[in-house]
Design goal:
single chain, alpha+beta, Alpha-Beta Plaits, 10-stranded mixed sheet, 22% helix, 29% strand
Amino acid sequence: MRNLKLILAYDGSDFLGWQVQPDSATIQGTLASAIGRITGEKVLPQGSGRTDAGVHALAQVATFTTQSPIPAENLVKALNDILPATIRILEASDVPLEFHARKSARAKTYRYRIYRGPICPPFLARYVWHYPYPLEEAAMQEAAGMVLGEHDFTAFAAADPERGRDEEIVSNVRKVLASNWRLEGDEFVYHVSGTGFLHHMVRNLVGTFLLVGKGTLTPPDIAGILEARNRSLAGATAPASGLYLVDVKY
């Protein structure tokens, strides 16, 4: 028995997220079908996290076990021949049987892109949140620093906190290792790294930081929202289109 690790990138626009669902196109389901066609085995690859509908990935990690003798480099070519162009296998490698894409992960990095120009180019519309209105970007940068460290992120979790992105243990405590905004051309981009993320956590943080940018909240308010652990005090969930899973560390 072999344990194979895949690194894949995908455009999540046309998929109902990572996790396999009946009668719906998902990344996990599409990948499982392609692997099955090549190996003749029924497998369900495990991802480092379950990205939501419309969310993209630059380097998602998945693992699955197989008895197929196909060399890893040949598997990359075979899978990319079968998979839709919106999913690409970047790398494949043999790893120890105990390695697990999700359970072995130590940190993840996400990116959220806000397009600030007055007119969003049509070929970018599916990959950014277009927000051309005035924002106090310096205040948003200050607010981003307020979530650094270990906190209970209940206020920034989805209404169904049971659906943790990364862990089976139900806990809303996470450690944020980096959190900052950068102006990159016509885009204002949020970069965040942490030991794990709750369902909708990054998108809820972005939606709340936007309220700071609009002047509805102040940067110190973020600390109070964290302390209150009340989802209704935070901002609305930002659209999925601007979110990317960038990197997973092991």
